Amino acid sequence: MESLTSEILASLPLFQGIGKNELAQFSDSVPHSIVKYNKGQTIVSQDSPCRHLILILQGTVGVSTDADNKIYTLHERLHSPIAIQPEMLYGISLRYTHSYTAQTEVKALIIPKEGVVTMYSHFEVFRLNIINLLSTKIYRQHQWFWHNHDAGTEKRIVHFIHSRCSYPAGEKILEISMEQLGRQINEPRMKISHSLNQMQKKGWLLLHRGKIIVPALEKLILNVK
Length: 225
Fold this sequence. Notes:
Layout: H1 6-10, H2 20-29, E1 33-37, E2 42-44, E3 52-58, E4 60-66, E5 73-79, E6 82-84, E7 99-102, E8 106-112, H3 113-122, H4 124-144, H5 153-162, E9 172-175, H6 178-185, H7 189-201, E10 206-208, E11 211-214, H8 217-223
Antiparallel strand pairs: 1-8, 2-7, 3-6, 3-8, 4-5, 4-7, 5-9, 9-11, 10-11
């Protein structure tokens, strides 16, 4: 299976903790392929069907998410290893909610849905990893309902960005007008403008026309308490 050694597989999300014998069994018995994506190439598109488990082995991936009404878009940058929305393989909606694009040359391990079923049935650690991933995601989403979202304009802006991210760290770019952001968090445009400019003066983010650039979301979260 190309150069996919057991140590490479063991470093991937959902494979961590699986023994060498089981990894060797995976290579022999589970259908899979390795796909290379060139810089700028789309890996998956938002709203497209999810029929495979895609694990990014190498490279950097851009993640873009459009609001349902298309009035804003959030961009993220993630580094390998990444599991691309494995929760979308099952459940009510079987479609990706984000678009993923290669920002460098990317190598991905792709396992069809029937292969995932085989792994789930035969590899207990993989099964536990899936359960842990889904439990963590559910916990994070549930916690947002209990956060204090009425704690000042700056914090509400950070909550708006944070709650829409697939990963709560790294660079984020939100394409949205100040008027639209104000409508989303129920704040007047003047307060949005003042708060964003104050955060820019403190070096927490950068403002461009129609864009809010957050170099490191984890630092912004720590600064805005």
